[in-house]
Amino acid sequence: MIMTDAEFDLLRSLLETPSPSGFEQPVQRIWRKFLAEVADEISGDVMGNAAALISGSGEKGLRVMLAAHCDEIGFMIRYIDEAGFLYFAPIGGVDAHLVPGQRILVHTAAGAVPGVVGKKPIHLMETKDRETVVKFKNQFVDIGCSDRKQAEALVSVGDPITFAAGVERLEGGRVTARSFDDKVGIFIVARVLEEVKRRGLLPVDLIGVSTVQEEVGLRGGGTSAYWVRPDLAIVVEAGFATDFPEIDRKETGDFRLGGGPILSRGANIHPRLFDLLLETARRNNIPVQILGEPRATGTDANVIQLVRSGVATALVRVPLRYMHTPAEVLDLGDVDHAIHLLTEFLFRLDGRCSFIQV
Question: Which terminus of the chain is more solvent-facing, meaning fewer CB atoms within 10 Å of its CB: N or C?
């Protein structure tokens, strides 16, 4: 598979559409619109999760959930001071080191308002302060206003903020953007559903789900799985690439851009699903990398596994450099390999399979 211009345009649209946790519906609308002509049914729930069903050929076949989260990290306005500066708090896990000096967008009911996170020039800083991280409570956004009244005419307390970074192509099929974590996942889910529809009926019911609020506690993964009632689930996520300087691979493992998707293995992963994914990769000459995860994975897989009486769950990750920064980097070849792997895996399933461990 090679990503077409139309497919890349869909990926770009997902990446550049704001969706901080709790404010995901702009990107959900794009995802649902794309799948409207692919799925047999599009639905949603009170949390904001979106689902697309492709019905299988079997009368009582397995229900397979293919899930990824659409929310991204960001910020929220907490206070507007008399001079018109905006004070904020992070949404999700944001590194305070990298925020000062960044360009941002405040997302209001009337549209996006550009701004910058202020930063004292190095010339005016005491020597000791140059190596100190500015706490979020002391960071502020400048949208160019001169007083509170002017700022409040444009933005409101509670408005979400994202980094303003867009998509840029790098060398060798690599791309940088904010929010690959996990817009790349919902892109892969959408593309797999499209490939399944093109190839013909599965013996299982396939439900693609774009979940919400993963970055603030894996909330949408658990609630959507309760509603979807899957027999098995594959979560598609971003994973840590470790092929850049200052990484201790003895601790993290060795994961490289262009090395193929990462298959997690551990307590959060059903062993039969892991084996099936690995066998599928080998049969189809799809490169994969293996990650040993002895604890909970910190992804939607962790909560989906525990829904109702348990769900057979696996986790497929796309290696990503510089996660949770405005300059995340991945290799489009890994994205294509993930789509190929998941599509081939689904066509290997037998609707009568049992995943009860004995």
Answer: C
Q: Are residues 198 and 344 in the same domain?
A: yes
Is residue 358 one of the residues assigned to a domain? no
Is 194 part of the annotated catalytic residue set?
no
Average pLDDT of the chain, as a whole number: 95
What pLDDT score was predicted for residue 128?
79
Instruction: For residue 165, give the nearest of 69, 299, 72, 31 by alpha carbon.
Output: 72
Partner residues linked to 206 by β-bridges? 54, 64
- What's residue 201's pLDDT? 86
Name residue 232's beta-bridge partners.
64, 312
Which of 24, 214, 215, 328 is flagged as catalytic?
214
Provide φ and ψ at 291, rounded to 5°. -115, 120
**Domain of 287, in residue numbers:** 5-72+178-348
- Other C-beta atoms closer than 10 Å to the C-beta of 22 total 18
CATH code (residue 132): 2.40.30.40
Distance CA 329, CA 178 (A): 9
pLDDT tens profile 95-149: 999 999 999 999 999 999 999 999 888 787 777 778 889 999 999 999 999 999 9
Amino acid at site 255: F
Total structural domains within the chain: 2
The verdict on residue 170 lying in a domain is no
CA nearest to 266, candidates 288, 238, 298, 231: 298
**276 pLDDT above the threshold of 90:** yes
CATH number assigned to the domain comprising residue 338: 3.40.630.10
Q: How confident is the model over 282-291, as a mean pLDDT? A: 98
Side chain identity at residue 311, one-letter code? V
The C-alpha atoms of residue 170 and residue 183 are separated, in whole angstroms, by 18
